[in-house]
C-alpha cells in the first residue's frame, strides 16, 4: 500500500486527507520502531554499565556528547545525497538516484576515515578537556578511541539507511537496526562482564566473558555496527528495487552536480557541528557538579530520548514525503505534508511526555541502582516532560526543511536557540541551582525552539503558496 500511495503521489494523483495521514503513519511507524529498538539498546547498555558503579557510568557520560557531535556530523555529511535521491525518485529519474548512491557512499566513507584519525589523535586529551575526575579518565579515553574505530561502520549505517528511507523503503532499514540493536546487547553481555557462573531456572552454568567493563561496552557496539553495515550495503546495492546497481551503469555524479549536492550537506554539517559543540559545552557545564550529577544527567538524557523517539521517526518520514513531492513538482501537496507531519509529531510527543512524567522513577531506576542518581535523574526528567511537545514541533520541522533541501535553516535556528539562550543561562543556573536548574533552563529553551521552528516553517509554507 505504501508503494501504491507513493506512486500515486509522484504521478500527480489526488490524495485524500485519509490517504495522506495513512502515508505519514505508515512511513513513520517503521522509523519509530527502529528508534525504539535503539533506545531499548541504549537502556540495556546503560544498565549493564551502571551495574559496574558510578565511575563507569560517569566515564561514558563524560564523552557521550562528543560522540553525539561526531555522530551528528557523520549523519549530516550524507544528507545532500539522500535528499537528492528523494528528489530524483520524485521526478521519476531512478538512474540519477543511483548516481547519488555511488557518489554518496564514496564521499561519506572518505569523511569517516578522516574523522577516525582525528579521534585517534585526541582520545587521550578529550576527557581532561571535559573536566573529568582522575579516576574516570582512563576508561573515558578508551571508550572514545573504540568509538572512533567504528566511525566508517556508523557512516555506512547512517547514510545507507537514509538512502533506503528516501527511496520510500522505511521497513528494511528499521528491521536491520532492530536486529543490530539485539546483537549489540548480546555482544555487550559477553564483552562487559567477566567469565562467571549463572543460575537459570535452578540450574547453574558457566558463562564466558571478556570482563572489559567500559571498553567492552564500546567493543560490543562496534561488532554490532559491523553486522549492520554489511546488511545495509547489501540492502542498498543488491536488493533495493530502485537503488540496486545495474550492469552497465557506472560512474557517479559529475563534478558540478557533486559540488551542488555537497553544498546541501554543508549547512547540515555546520548545524550539526554547532549543536554538537553546544551539547559538549552543556556537559562541560555539568561536569564540575560531580559524578552523581554527570551520571544522572547522562541517564536522564537516555531516558528522555525514549520520549522524543516518535518525533525523530516522523521527521524521517517527513523528509521522504516532502522530498519526493518537491521532486515531483507538487507544491500544494508538499505544503499539506508540512502541516500534517508536524501536527502528528506534536500529538505523538505529547502522549509520550505524559508517560515519561508518570514513569520517570522506573525509567531511571532501570539504569542504575544508586539511590542518589535515581532521585536526581527522576527530578530532571519530570522537569523536561513539559517541553517535549514543543521539541516535537522542532524535530519534525527540521525533517521538513531537509526534504525541501533547506538544510541551512534548521542549523541557524538551532544555533540561535542553543548558543544565545540555553548555554549562557545554563552557566548561571549550574552555579545557583545545580542540575535541576540546568534542566529547567533546557526546558524553557526547547519550548522557545519549537515555537521558533513552527513560525519559520509557517512562513516558508506561505511563500510556497505565492
Question: Over all CA atoms, what is the radius of gyration?
Answer: 22 Å
Cα(first) to Cα(last) distance is: 33 Å
Question: What helical percentage do the residues reach?
Answer: over 70%
Major pleated sheet? 2 strands, antiparallel
Which word captures the global form?
A: globular
Strand order of the largest sheet: 1-2
pLDDT averaged over residues: 85
Q: Which band does the percent of strand residues land in?
A: under 5%
Number of strands: 2
- Order of helix and strand elements from N to C terminus: HHHHHHHHHEEHHHHHHHH
Structural class: mainly alpha
Describe this entry's structure for a reader.
- This protein is mainly α and 466 residues long.
- 82% of the residues lie in helices and 3% in strands.
- The mean pLDDT is 85.
In short:
82% of the residues lie in helices and 3% in strands.
List the helices and strands and how they pair.
Elements: H1 2-10, H2 17-50, H3 54-76, H4 79-90, H5 94-122, H6 126-129, H7 134-149, H8 151-166, H9 171-192, E1 194-200, E2 203-210, H10 214-239, H11 255-286, H12 291-327, H13 331-358, H14 360-365, H15 371-384, H16 388-404, H17 408-465
Antiparallel strand pairs: 1-2
Helix pairs in contact: 2-9, 2-12, 3-7, 3-11, 3-12, 4-5, 4-8, 4-11, 4-12, 5-7, 5-8, 7-10, 8-9, 8-10, 9-10, 11-17, 12-13, 12-15, 12-16, 13-16, 13-17, 15-17, 16-17
List keywords for this structure.
466 residues, mainly alpha, two-stranded antiparallel sheet, 17 helices, 2 strands, 82% helix, 3% strand
Amino acid at each position: 500500500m505504501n508503494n501504491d500511495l507513493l506512486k500515486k503521489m509522484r504521478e500527480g494523483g489526488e490524495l485524500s486527507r485519509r490517504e495522506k495521514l495513512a502515508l505519514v503513519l505508515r512511513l513513520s511507524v517503521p522509523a519509530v520502531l527502529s528508534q525504539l529498538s535503539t533506545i531499548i539498546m541504549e537502556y540495556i547498555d546503560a544498565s549493564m554499565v551502571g551495574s559496574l558503579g558510578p565511575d563507569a557510568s560517569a566515564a561514558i557520560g563524560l564523552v557521550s556528547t562528543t560522540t553525539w557531535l561526531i555522530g551528528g556530523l557523520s549523519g549530516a555529511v550524507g544528507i545532500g545525497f539522500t535528499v537528492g535521491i528523494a528528489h530524483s525518485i520524485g521526478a521519476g529519474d531512478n538512474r540519477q538516484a543511483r548516481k547519488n548512491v555511488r557518489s554518496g557512499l564514496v564521499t561519506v566513507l572518505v569523511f569517516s576515515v578522516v574523522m577516525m584519525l582525528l579521534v585517534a589523535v585526541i582520545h587521550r586529551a578529550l576527557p581532561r578537556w571535559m573536566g573529568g575526575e582522575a579516576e574516570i579518565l582512563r576508561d573515558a579515553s578508551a571508550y572514545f578511541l573504540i568509538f572512533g574505530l567504528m566511525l566508517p561502520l556508523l557512516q555506512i549505517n547512517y547514510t545507507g539507511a537514509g538512502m533506503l528511507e528516501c527511496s520510500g523503503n522505511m521497513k528494511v532499514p528499521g528491521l536491520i537496526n532492530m536486529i543490530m540493536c539485539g546483537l549489540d546487547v548480546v555482544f555487550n553481555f559477553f564483552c562487559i562482564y567477566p567469565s562467571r557462573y549463572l543460575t537459570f531456572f535452578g540450574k547453574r552454568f558457566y558463562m564466558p566473558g571478556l570482563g572489559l567493563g567500559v571498553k567492552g561496552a564500546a567493543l560490543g557496539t562496534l561488532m554490532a555496527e559491523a553486522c549492520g553495515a554489511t546488511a545495509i550495503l547489501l540492502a542498498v546495492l543488491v536488493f533495493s528495487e530502485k537503488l540496486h546497481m545495474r550492469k552497465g551503469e557506472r560512474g557517479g555524479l559529475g563534478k558540478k552536480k557533486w559540488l551542488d549536492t555537497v553544498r546541501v550537506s554543508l549547512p547540515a554539517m555546520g548545524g550539526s557541528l554547532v549543536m554538537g559543540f553546544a551539547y559538549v559545552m552543556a556537559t562541560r557545564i555539568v561536569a564540575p557538579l560531580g559524578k552523581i550529577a554527570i551520571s544522572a544527567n547522562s541517564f536522564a538524557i537516555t531516558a528522555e530520548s525514549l520520549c522524543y523517539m516518535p518525533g525523530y521517526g516522523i521527521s524521517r518520514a517527513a523528509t521522504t514525503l516532502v522530498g519526493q513531492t518537491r521532486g515531483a513538482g507538487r507544491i500544494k501537496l508538499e505544503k499539506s505534508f508540512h502541516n500534517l507531519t508536524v501536527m502528528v509529531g506534536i500529538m505523538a510527543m505529547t502522549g509520550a511526555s505524559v508517560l515519561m512524567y508518570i514513569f520517570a522513577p522506573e525509567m531511571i531506576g532501570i539504569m542504575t541502582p544508586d539511590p542518589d542518581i535515581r532521585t536526581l535523574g527522576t527530578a530532571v526528567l519530570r522537569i523536561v516532560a513539559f517541553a517535549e511537545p514543543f521539541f516535537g514541533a522542532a524535530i519534525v520541522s527540521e525533517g521538513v526543511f531537509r526534504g525541501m533541501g533547506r538544510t541551512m535553516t534548521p542549523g541557524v535556528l538551532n544555533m540561535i536557540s542553543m548558543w544565545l539562550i540555553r548555554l549562557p543561562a545554563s552557566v548561571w543556573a549550574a552555579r545557583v541551582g545545580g542540575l535541576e536548574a540546568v534542566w529547567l533552563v533546557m526546558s524553557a529553551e526547547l519550548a522557545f525552539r519549537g515555537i521558533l521552528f513552527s513560525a519559520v516553517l509557517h512562513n516558508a509554507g506561505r511563500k510556497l503558496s505565492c
